[in-house]
Amino acid sequence: MTGTGATAAGVRPGAGRYALGLLVVVYVFNAIDRQIMNVLVEPVRAELGVSDQQLGFLVGGAFAIFYTVAGLPIARWADRGTRRTIIALALAAWSAMTVASGLSRTFGQLLLARIGVGVGEAGCSPASHSLISDYFPLQQRGTALALYQAGGQVGMLSGFILGGYLAETYGWRTAFFVVGAPGLLLAVVVQLTLREPPRGLSDRRDVSTEIEPLGSVLRFIWGLPSLRHVLAATSLQTLVIAAQLTFNSSVLIRVHEMSLTHVGLALGLINGLVGGIFTFAGGYFGDRLQRRDLRWYLWLPAAGALLSVPLSIAAYLSDDVVATILLLAAASAGYHLFAALGHATVQSLVRPRMRATMSAIALLAMNLVGFLIGPWLAGVISDLLRPRFGEESIRYALLGVSLLMLWAVLHYGLAARTYREDLLAKTREDGASA
Fold first, then answer.
1. Does residue 387 lie in a domain region?
2. Rounded distance, CA 295 to CA 42, Å?
3. I need a surface site. Which of 232, 333, 394, 410 has the fewest CB within 10 A?
4. How far apart are CA 289 and CA 359, in angstroms?
């Protein structure tokens, strides 16, 4: 895959490839600092004496609420300001708050530190999605965003494996120190070396310097049925994934009595390696299949989401640890097909000066519905079922939440009905305003 090759405004050939590579590394650290909490839930629960509902809010709700509150204003800044600086500042902020997580001595202190991580990470993806979309045209955007999203899976792999090993060997606080500190140095590299492309570079046309008013952006989104349904589908899919990410470690420890190190390795491979491969595969094959029919951008994640449902149910009902791990890996392969294509779809449907704002709105929906509700809902159901099932209540809670993936599949189908027409209408409007 190559960049646009444009040299406008001092952007050298190859700058797009370097920018993408650096942003992938940034997203690796983003995912490590966010996802490491998922493998630490059991030692935190044991030391701080919290319930599953409190853990669900700590991992999901606290992060999602403040990520959401900060995300839209930062994205508006990214649509008018220097995205490189925003990414560097965000990286430094969430890295510092990850280190602060390791200094926590009470549940309240840890909650505040994780809120800080959410606020910091709110500045990463909207600005990054906007930069990548300006460097890579529509025909390459799915693959480029797939590579970026795959960085998150690499970070998840590293976070689970490092987190499990460090927590079992040195304690969960040390795990936060080790993964948080390097991000402070990476922030300096981003600020000094990342190039800022002209807006609309990949579209090969000049873009107005005026930022789109927020009301105009919201009306534009509401006017495209496919965009509304994609937001609904990806949000519901994130709800299921967030619940599983938060409590799969609890299933393996409570039900199958695995050690923390082995849990980190297993979940790192499931969510990092398998998830990363199929995140990239979704973008790569989506770019190729859309040459035949643009709706493959929606059909592919719908098929993967549908396939993941029976696999997840079988995983949580299994009493064999090897079968559980293999089934969770297969389910992960299915539902990770959406990771790049969801963002590629919404980026392609909006104008260049809307891209960071659109990314923030998409992430707002996914975080409010997904990370706010998903882990909390699974925790509530687990606590309600505990009198009957004891420590195994978490497996049945996750089984129930996994059924909501079928609702996401429905919205993908509805989005596909109008996607081609909506994309064509947007392209005509861009041509008329150029």
1. yes
2. 42
3. 410
4. 24
Mean pLDDT for the chain overall: 85
Contacts of 108 (CB under 8 A, 6+ apart): none
Q: Which helix (H) or strand (E) holds 207?
A: none
Q: How many CB atoms lie within 10 A of CB 284?
A: 16
Domain that holds residue 304: 16-192+211-433
Instruction: Give yes or no for a contact between 133 and 78, defined as CB atoms under 8 angstroms apart.
Output: no
- DSSP letter at 210? S
Tell whether the model's pLDDT for residue 371 goes beyond 60. Answer: yes
**pLDDT at 422 (0 to 100):** 83
Alpha helices in 7-124 (DSSP H): 15-39, 41-48, 52-56, 62-80, 83-101, 107-121
Residue 180 near residue 101 (C-beta atoms within 8 A): yes
What digits encode the pLDDT tens for the residues 159-195? 888 888 999 899 999 999 999 999 999 999 999 999 8
* Average pLDDT score over residue span 24-42: 89
Cα–Cα distance measured from residue 132 to residue 3, given in angstroms and rounded to the nearest whole number: 10
* pLDDT class of 4 with cuts at 50, 70, 90: very low
Band of residue 8 on the pLDDT scale cut at 50, 70, 90: very low
Would you list the DSSP string of 337-363? THHHHHHHHHHHHS-GGGHHHHHHHHH
Residues 6+ apart with CB under 8 A from 161: 264, 265, 268, 272
CATH number of the CATH domain containing 163 = 1.20.1250.20
Rounded CA-CA distance 211/217 in Å is 10
pTM of the model: 0.71
163 belongs to a structural domain: yes
In a domain, 140, yes or no: yes
Mean per-residue pLDDT, 85-91:
93
Q: Is 288 part of any domain?
A: yes
**Burial status of residue 56 (CB atoms within 10 A of its CB: 0-12, 13-18, 19 or more):** buried
Number of domains in the chain: 1
3-state SS class at 121: helix
Task: Report d(CA 113, CA 177) in Å as an integer.
Answer: 13
